[in-house]
Structure formats: C-alpha cells, structure tokens
C-alpha cells in the first residue's frame, strides 16, 4: 500500500502532521549528513580526538529532535496541552514584525501544499469516522444534504488541482493518481447518498430545508460536468438526469412561494408556524433560483411529483403533477432578482452590517415590523454564492459590490481589523481575535444545527470568490464575461480575504483531538481553553433576539405559534400538509433528545462535543484555505 493512501485510510494526515512529517524527514536528513561527515573525519583522527566529535554529534541530534518537538508539534497536540504552562497554541511562533497575532495565518501561511494536504485530511477523517456507507447516521436530513454538498464541492477542488497542477500541487504530499483515486472514492459516496437520503422526511419539512437539497444535487451536477470537461470522463454522466430530477422536485416546493401580501415579498420560513420571513430561507431562495437557472440541465422525468416511490404509503397524500420547467427558464432568473431586491429593501442588516435572523408580523399588521435581532454566522454567507450567480446571469457588478460589503462586515465583526491586542480580544459581533464564533461556541451549548454554521459561511464565500470568466462565459449566449479590469479587481479583493481565512482554518485545526476531529469553538486555543464550556467568554445574545436554533422549545410559544388571521390563507403551502407539520415538530423534539443523550467524545468536550457537524464546519474553512491559496484555473 502506498504511503499517501495509507495516510488517508489511517487518518494520519488528518492529525495535522503533513508538514510535521516533512520537516521531521528534513531534520533526519541533516542528521544523516552530519553522521556521514563525522565518519569521514573519524578516519583521520585518533580515537581520543573522536570523543568530542561524537559528543557534538549527539548534541546535534538532540537539538534536531528538540527543535522538531518544539516547533512542529501538530495543532491537535497544542490544543489540549497544559494551559498552566503557557500558550496551548503556538502563537509564540508568531513573528511580531509580520503584523498582529490576531491577523496571523499560521506558520504555513500561504503554503498551498500544506493547506491542500490538510483539506484532504479533514475530509478523510470526516468520511472514515462518520460515513456508514450510505449516509451519516448521527445527523439531521438538511445537514446531510449540506455535507453531501461539501463532498461534491471537494470533488471540484480536486478537479481544479488536476487542471491547474496536473495533480502535483506544489509542496503537497499527493499525486495525480492519488487525487484521481479520491475523486472516484468520494463520488461513489455521493452516488450512495442519493439512495440513502430520507427524501420523504425532508420533503415535508420547512422551506429552508428543501432548498439545501436543491443546492446539493446541483453541486453534484456541477462537479460531474467540470470533471468531464477535464478528463472526458463518463464518471457520473448516467446520474445527471436523476440528480436533476431531485433538484427540480425540491425547487418546486418553493418555486411560487414568494408572496407579496405580507412584508411586501419574500418567503416564510415554515408553513407550520406563524409567518416568519427569515434570512436563511430567503437567501437560499436567491441561491436555489439562480443556480437552477445556471446549472440545471433539464428533467427527463418531468411530471413525476413524488420524492420517493413510498411517498403515498408513508404520508397518505397524493400530489399534482410536476409543472414543466425549461432549461434556463427566465422564471428562475426573475425569482432570484425579485428575491434579492426584496431582501435588500428590508432592514436585514444591523448597525454593524451583519444580517439578522428575520422578521415577525405584529397582530393586525402586514409589514415585517418585529425584527428578531439574533445573528448567526451562516446567515452572513449563504447569499454570497447567489450574488455571484446573479452577476454571472446579468453582468451587473453591483451584485459583487454588495457581496464585498457583506464580507467586510463579517471580517470586522471577528476583531480582525482591531488596532490593539486588547481590542482584538473583545467580542466584536461574530467572534474575537480575528476568529469567527457563534454565540453558542464559548458556552458550549450549540445545537446540532448551529455546530455546522461556520462551515456554511466559508463554503459560500469560497463560491463567491471563484475567478470571473473573461473569455468564455459559463453558458454561451446566456451569461456574461468580465472585463480584464473587473476580473483583476475581483481576484485582488478576494485575495485580501486569504490571510483571514487561513487564520480561521488554522484555528479550527488547532482544536483537533487525538482522533483528528475538529471542535466547535475555534477560538478556544488562542485563549488557552479547550472545548469545555468557558462562561467567562460567553456573551449575551443581541437585545431583541430569540435564539431558536439553540432553544427550539421556543417554537411552541408566541410569536412562533400561528394564531393570526392569515394562518389559514397564507400558512398552508402546497407541500406543507399536516404530515409536514408533524414531522417538523417531531424533528425539533428529536433534536432535544439527541442533544441531551449524546455522549462526550473526550474529557474536554462539553455540550454535544466533537461531531460530524463540527468536522464538516472545519472542512468548510480548511477547504476554503486550500482553494484560496492554490492558484485557480483561469477561464
């Protein structure tokens, strides 16, 4: 078995040791050279003269080993070190002449090979630890769709490595054959999840859940087409039609749910509850609409409305035939444009420019007059890929400009642009010390949902920052290309985010335990903490907010329970029958039971501990670091 494959199967690479092993070999190479030279000298010296040389060689070997242990121990070792002896994380390696510690990308800053290896390792650890051959059994359905999306996106990153470097990523311990083997292995898992996905359950859930499925299978189609363009491969070609049909089925759930009778537009979150126009559902509607417009190839099975052959028996419901939808249907572009125009017209941004969770409607009102000021990391990022798609479809650069503004607001809210160490250490809105956090991270009370949010942010930032095409449009005779100046501006602006992304990826890697699993609170090692709860670093949620993602029992109370005059007329979507209502509330209760019973993974895990969700979040940011540091193919 070759070494690279052994690394992936054992999870050895996933312990952050790629660069460590490389430097270890370098250290021993130095020792070997010293030894050879010493033997030559010994031939020329008496045994009495040789003794000091031997002692010196021993000291050299000891120094080499000590240097390795001090400077190149893996992040997983740093994060759980004894915090009474100094910094658990090697921030002491930081060179103060390079800037500020809270703006440091780690000792391998800018090394694309290091980040590519770590990306491979995190993905390998996630799949070898949590994948059972069909699905990820400990997670929720919408998160399963997200993880599958990350898997397909990883396949695109592997394909880019083949296109750009022919598999020989500079500085990485990989090869053309190794990457091709990974592509085959992970595609088989994507294919298996198509059959393992509980489509009946998620079909009857909330409107946000349905749209994760749309993006999931469009990302898989995107990979198949990109890999075929590179390798002229048949891999996945036979699956495109069924992947496209599933995307169509789930988009049809929300296709006509943009409603102007309340709040002037937008989608409600959950037809089982009182009207709540929230950020995530509407951001996803931008994304799913524009991605359907750009990437959906049509549907050979255009009329079958059922997500599963067992749907009627399981639900006792029948559905109307699936409406016809054309490839690149103008309706899809119109939906995306109308949705973003409405979103931008509403006061979704707080005083820091961060996107709040959503809006309720007061009794006897029709406007969104009751904001929920809660701020979550994923709400800041999901619309970014939609804005990128809107530029592609319209050529309107204002969509990109808006995206840059959203990104800058988030970077500022992590304390990245602070002027002093003390200022950087204070909560800035979505983190501190330049490291992204959700409110639930430090107190270790994140729900299953919230544990994956940060990874979602970095995945969509990664999509937003893909290079703009300058010569060949994405869809000939339909989409736009950028001028050389605009493409360069976009590339330079996005390059400005790279060090911050590396800083966060390095932080995430530093939380790994002995099994290589990433923790949820990325900022813990910076302040000499483990993944245990740290009340002294907890902060109050924003005034006027309800943290329903981590306190789902709130959904059974006002203002979430539907009791207004509009419930019967507005709250019953075409695919939201009683079955869907019951399943959604049952899932809420199941989350509470799982959160209470989930065993800790090590002594420093509190709350839900390290899970497939925390590992997937880590994958999102580490993959982004790899993509941003590796030169991407130009169009």
Automatic annotation (TrEMBL):
<protein>
    <submittedName>
        <fullName>Glycoside hydrolase family 76 protein</fullName>
    </submittedName>
</protein>
<keyword id="KW-0378">Hydrolase</keyword>
<dbReference type="GO" id="GO:0005975">
    <property type="term" value="P:carbohydrate metabolic process"/>
</dbReference>
<dbReference type="InterPro" id="IPR005198">
    <property type="entry name" value="Glyco_hydro_76"/>
</dbReference>
<dbReference type="GO" id="GO:0016787">
    <property type="term" value="F:hydrolase activity"/>
</dbReference>
<dbReference type="InterPro" id="IPR053169">
    <property type="entry name" value="MUG_Protein"/>
</dbReference>
<dbReference type="InterPro" id="IPR008928">
    <property type="entry name" value="6-hairpin_glycosidase_sf"/>
</dbReference>
<dbReference type="Pfam" id="PF03663">
    <property type="entry name" value="Glyco_hydro_76"/>
</dbReference>
């Amino acid at each position: 078995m070759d070494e690279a494959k052994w690394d992936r199967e054992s999870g050895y690479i996933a312990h952050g040791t790629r660069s460590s092993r490389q430097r270890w070999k370098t250290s021993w190479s130095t020792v070997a050279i010293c030894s050879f030279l010493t033997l030559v000298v010994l031939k020329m010296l008496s045994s009495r003269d040789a003794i000091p040389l031997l002692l010196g060689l021993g000291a050299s070997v000891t120094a080499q080993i000590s240097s390795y242990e001090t400077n190149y121990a893996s992040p997983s070792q740093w994060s759980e070190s004894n915090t009474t002896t100094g910094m658990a994380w090697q921030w002491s390696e930081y060179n103060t002449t390079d800037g500020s510690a809270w703006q440091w990308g780690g000792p391998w800053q800018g090394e694309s090979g290091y980040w590519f290896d770590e990306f491979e390792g995190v993905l390998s650890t996630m799949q070898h630890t949590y994948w059972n051959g069909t699905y990820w059994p400990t997670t929720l359905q919408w998160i399963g769709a997200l993880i599958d999306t990350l898997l397909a996106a990883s396949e695109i990153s592997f394909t880019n490595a083949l296109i750009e470097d022919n598999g020989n990523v500079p500085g990485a311990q990989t090869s053309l054959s190794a990457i091709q083997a990974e592509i085959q292995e992970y595609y088989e898992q994507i294919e298996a999840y198509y059959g393992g996905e509980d489509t009946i359950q998620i079909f009857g859930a909330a409107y946000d859940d349905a749209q994760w499925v749309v993006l999931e299978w469009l990302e898989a189609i995107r990979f198949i087409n990109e890999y075929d363009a590179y390798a002229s491969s048949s891999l996945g070609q036979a699956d495109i039609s069924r992947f496209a049909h599933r995307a169509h089925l789930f988009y049809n759930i929300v296709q006509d749910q943009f409603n102007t009778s309340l709040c002037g537009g937008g989608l409600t979150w959950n037809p089982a509850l009182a009207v709540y126009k929230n950020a995530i559902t509407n951001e996803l509607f931008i994304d799913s609409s524009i991605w359907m417009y750009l990437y959906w190839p049509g549907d050979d099975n255009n009329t079958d409305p059922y997500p599963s052959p067992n749907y009627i028996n399981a639900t006792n419901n029948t559905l109307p035939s699936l409406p016809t939808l054309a490839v690149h249907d103008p309706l899809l572009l119109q939906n995306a444009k109308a949705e973003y125009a409405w979103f931008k017209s509403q006061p979704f941004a707080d005083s820091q420019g961060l996107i709040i969770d959503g809006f309720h409607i007061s009794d006897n009102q029709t406007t969104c007059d009751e904001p929920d000021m809660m701020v979550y990391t994923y709400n800041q990022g999901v619309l970014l890929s939609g804005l990128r798609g809107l530029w592609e479809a319209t050529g309107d650069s204002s969509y990109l400009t808006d995206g840059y503004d959203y990104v800058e607001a988030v970077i500022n809210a992590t304390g990245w642009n602070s002027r002093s160490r003390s200022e950087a250490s204070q909560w800035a809105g979505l983190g501190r010390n330049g490291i992204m956090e959700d409110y639930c991270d430090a107190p270790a009370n994140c729900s299953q949902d919230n544990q994956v949010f940060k990874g979602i942010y970095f995945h969509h930032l990664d999509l937003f920052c893909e290079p703009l095409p300058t010569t060949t449009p994405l869809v000939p005779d339909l989409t736009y290309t950028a001028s050389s100046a605009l493409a360069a501006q976009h590339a330079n602006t996005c390059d400005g985010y790279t060090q911050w992304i590396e800083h966060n990826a390095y932080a995430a890697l530093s939380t790994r335990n002995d099994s290589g699993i990433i923790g949820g609170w990325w900022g813990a090692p910076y302040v000499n903490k483990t993944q245990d709860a740290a009340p002294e670093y907890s902060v109050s949620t924003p005034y006027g907010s309800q943290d329903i993602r981590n306190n789902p029992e709130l959904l059974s109370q006002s203002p979430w329970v539907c009791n207004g005059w509009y419930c019967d007329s507005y709250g019953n979507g075409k695919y939201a029958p009683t079955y869907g209502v019951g399943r959604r509330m049952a899932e809420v209760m199941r989350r509470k039971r799982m959160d209470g019973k989930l065993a800790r993974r090590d002594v420093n895990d509190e709350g839900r501990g390290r899970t497939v969700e925390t590992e997937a979040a880590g994958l999102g940011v580490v993959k982004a670091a790899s993509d941003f540091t590796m030169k991407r193919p130009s169009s």
